[in-house]
What does this fold into?
Amino acid sequence: MKSYVNVPFRIGDKEFTEADMELIQITVQRFSKFSRDEIILTICENLPWKSPNGRPKKEACRSLLLELEEKGVITLPPRRITNSVQARQERRGVALHTQLSASLKEVSPVTVDLVTPEQRADWNATMDTHHPLGFKRAIGAHLRYWIRVQRPEGSQIVGLLLFGAAAKALAVRDEWIGWTHEQRMRFRPKIVNNNRYLILPGVHIPHLASHVLALTARRIRSDWQARYGFEPVLLETFVEPQYSGTCYRAANWIEVGKTVGRGRQDRDYQYGTSIKSVWMYPLARDWRKRLFVPFPEWVEPTDE
It folds into this structure.
């Protein structure tokens, strides 16, 4: 069975061979009456394709299958709208609004807290309502955060953060790191992108934004480790041209250059977008050494 895909190739630390591609094709054909999620889980189990913490890499697998379908290698079953999906669609979040002017000292300690599953709808609605780029959904590995300050009446939410997968290819970043194409394909998951950063309209607290970036940098390694089984090494972000990146500079992020004006998914150079500045933040002094350390292997637990 010919896959019409150049092999071997890597996605993160996983190398795909011709045999892997045949397994994917056979699984999709054999279980054509399954849902897409069931097929994805089956493939993740059979390859196996799992994070170091043992969780199946469902989003990465989903992206690969969609790409293979686009190339005509496989034909996925139609999408199904399940009761759980309908329930999520019907559960509309409530956008938060805050009015607060204070000094950083007056609202300390500031905290950066992970969003719980029950809070996601409100977080999504708030980000979509207030962020200039809006928000639809998080794709792939990601962490959502609330930014909270302390007031006499208790803690108060004043902002939101989203960290997710790094850009697949970014010329100025890749030149700054100095890695090869193969190294980028293998170790890119160790870079985490600050996809969204929002201080709520109506909140005016000097130096809050840079202070929050510093707080987040201290905890994201352990948070990512807890959820995905490995620690990130670098943070990256893009700053729109109408902004100067003041808070990132104040938090000791490094401006490494500009994008070339293409979107993350613009493989055919068809869609122009604004040229953004690219900022990086090393999460360890020896980040270059840590970047090229192989991911920890997941070991199947035994009953012993």
Observations:
- The radius of gyration is 21 Å.
- Confidence is low (pLDDT under 50) at residues 264-272.
- The chain has ten helices and eleven strands.
